[in-house]
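Key idea: predict the complex, not the pieces.
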Amino acid sequence: MDTFLQVTLSGVTMGCIYAFVALGFTLTIAAAGVVNFAYSEWVTYGAFIGVTLVSVFGLPLWLALLATVLLCAVMGYAFQWIVFRPLEGRHFLTTVTATIGIAVSMQALATLVWGPYALTLPTFFGSGVVNVAGVSIFPHNILIIATAVVLIGGLQLWLTGTDIGLRLQATAQDPVAARLMGIPIRHMRTFAYCLSAALAGLAGFLVAPLFVVTTTMGFGLMLKGLAATIVGGWGSLKGAVFGGLIIGIIEALGATYVSSEYKDVLSFLIIIIVLLVRPRGLFPEPIAEKL
Amino acid sequence: MVPPRKSARSRLLRLIAPVGLLAILIALPLALKNNYQLGIAHQALIFIILAVGYDVLLGFTGLLSFGHIGLFAIGAYTSALLVMSTGAPFLIGLMGAAVLTGFVGFLISIPALRIKGHYLTLLTLALGEVIRLVLRSMEWLTHGSSGLSGIPRPEILGFSFRQALPLYYLLLLFAVLTVVFVWRLKASRFGRAFMAIRDAEIGAEVCGVNTSKMKMMAFAISAIIAGVAGSLYAHTMRFISPEFFSLGLTIILLAMVLVGGRGTILGPAIGAALLIALPEVLRFVKEYYLLVFGIAIWLCVILLPDGLAGLGRRLLKRVGLAA
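Result:
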């Protein structure tokens, strides 16, 4: 039972990270119809920027986290003008290939700037472990889960309760109709890109202390985020969150009780099964997308 | 797409271009200085086969699969294991690879018929990753991540292709056969059905094209070609490991077809040769290579939607108008 709780906790932690990644990935799909395969590099850059701010500039961790998220949002803004504007409304194949090209370049740039070696980021609470009822808890995990709850809850309230949130939803559902209703969809999209990049930065920064920071770290996370997107439902924000949690928990349980060797196979098998049984995902968007 | 009336000049060009290209390829070893450069040429020929086969799926039928490298990997492993563990001749290994990948491609196509667009892409991405991870985890058969080494070079009816030069001509033969096969396929009833599915699936169905059957066939044909390419790769490089067949290679393959121009046969072949040779040519930029490579792909996709083949066609048209 203790092992089960322990494993579930670490699964939920990773699930929250996957949920962040999937959420950011879905945002640009929903708001602008852009499938951004360079997202992996945004996550990587988030981690690297965090490490740089902490170890080179000596910023305290809290400040570094805020600065990282902010810098990533700026990066998203810059990307919009350079990379995404020409891609909006283009064919899926075009967007995917172009953003993959960008990802390759960004990864190469990261290797040039930060070197090929793995870096580490300290945690907020040291490496100590707290024992609660026989379950040893790594405080950083709790921080990740708490951030996820606050952020995703806030996002949900904001999207459904505020004017600007509703406008963003309208843009996602039907850009043309939204524009006819007087919603500045350009601004909405700008906002979605920035938010998406900020989430990537946050995910990168939070996941860094659990592993090491390398130039390839974002890619694996993006694949899991992608799996979460599919399991949850393409373009659905709610689906991204639940999909992320499902993938994280199943992966952790599978690694412990089934086979750690086939751990990565597991999440891909989930994708395949979900796609075959419920091709629109577990939480499909009520408004069908056009392809 | 097809011009209404071909002038005699363009028909002549159509005849001369392939023959000229073939002549250049036959003479190419004279220009290559050492075995290393011949090795690059070997790889280029193998990837020409792979890219031209991939184009049947992507360019003709309009199905974007991210699992193609998985089929390539299955082909390589099947052939290598058949030859190494049972001592079967190379051709048996090659055929085994083709049959097995064809079968796997057919299996993949069954679920793929039910889903479309990016769902298909993501499904095949997952399948490709599963194939790679399973190859890595099946230590008893594939030696896991340390890979298979010491795969023998091809030998057909007692004639050994161990030397680099005979091997080059063997690979060239396979590449030419593939290109001719795909070229004939494009002109056939099946090729037209594939392209009809790409351009207007519902329209094709209304006109009596059995879209399910045709998609299955496109999957199977491109899988068989991938299997052949995989087998040739294993026996040429003499070493294979799961890490080589990663998603990164899928991306490079995709770039070959898109940079060359999808659906044009010659385009993907040129794209493949270009992308294999490019790292060698761009030696001087060293670590900046990937940086340049990524931006080049991005620019290519945005500025040349029809790839190099489309650019070439446009230039030819301009010359034709001027003359």
